[in-house]
Design goal:
By secondary structure, the protein is mainly beta. It folds into two domains: 93 residues, Quinohemoprotein amine dehydrogenase alpha subunit, domain 2 (Lipocalin); 90 residues, Beta Barrel (Lipocalin). Helix content is 10%, strand content 63%. The chain contains one helix and 16 strands. The strands form two sheets. It has an eight-stranded antiparallel β-barrel. Strand 7 and strand 8 form a beta hairpin. The protein is elongated, with a radius of gyration of 23 Å. The chain starts with a helix and ends with a strand. 17% of the residues are buried.
Length: 222
């Protein structure tokens, strides 16, 4: 009986060890800057995002020129690469292959005809991602309190804020990232505005609106 228990423990340990190794070697998961070269439309640049959902790879890519998003219909995993199937308007069902070149680069082809190269998108610090209670102080309308929400989509920060008093939602037009700070551009009834945020500590930020009105913020804890 002791031998059987020991053997059972061994196989359970082996199973979990294999599962852990599989998860740690999920090479293709993440964001990739991909170029499809010398097509009839020239070189096409996209941001490819891959994630593992319920054990299977899923993903999409966004055309950098047009902003059009295309979801992948199917991803077939091979030992050293992937085949990504998708549908393109006007061109029907297509596929793209990717193989690992090194830790940061992939190569492949579109329909076995057009060369493909890709580079892993370096993950920027996601300190600012999440919800923030932000106060814009001493404006002509008094202190304004908003809930700022920031998330990373296809490698870029996007966001919005909701005015606590009016419940109006304003989307960010553009967010510029620096090492420990952000500049957030948006449009309000007063025209195009911006405010800055910089990291103070793990839970607090400070900054200004239009370099004129002090801003402070506290992370909303989940």
């Amino acid at each position: 009986m002791k031998k059987f228990s020991a053997l059972l423990f061994f196989f359970i340990a082996l199973f979990f060890s294999s599962a852990t190794m599989a998860q740690s070697s999920d090479y293709f998961v993440g964001d990739w800057e991909v170029q499809i070269k010398d097509t009839p439309m020239g070189t096409i640049s996209v941001v490819l995002t891959l994630e593992r959902v319920d054990g299977k790879l899923a993903g999409k890519f966004v055309d950098k020129a047009s902003g059009v998003e295309t979801k992948l219909n199917q991803i077939t995993e091979q030992t050293a690469g992937l085949t990504l199937s998708f549908t393109a308007e006007g061109y029907g069902d297509l596929y793209l292959t990717l193989q690992r070149a090194d830790d940061e680069n992939v190569t492949g082809s579109l329909m076995d005809s057009f060369a493909v190269e890709g580079k892993r998108v370096a993950q920027k610090s996601d300190y600012f991602v999440g919800d923030w209670n932000v106060q814009i102080k001493d404006t002509p309308m008094g202190t304004i309190t908003v809930l700022l929400t920031l998330e990373r989509v296809a490698g870029k920060l996007v966001g919005k804020f909701v005015d606590n008093a009016a419940s109006t939602e304003t989307k960010m037009n553009d967010i510029t990232e620096n090492e420990n700070s952000l500049t957030l551009n948006f449009t309000s009834e007063y025209g195009d505005l911006y405010f800055t945020l910089k990291r103070e500590d793990d839970e607090n930020v400070s900054g200004s609106l239009m370099d004129s009105f002090a801003v402070s913020g506290t992370r909303v804890k989940k």
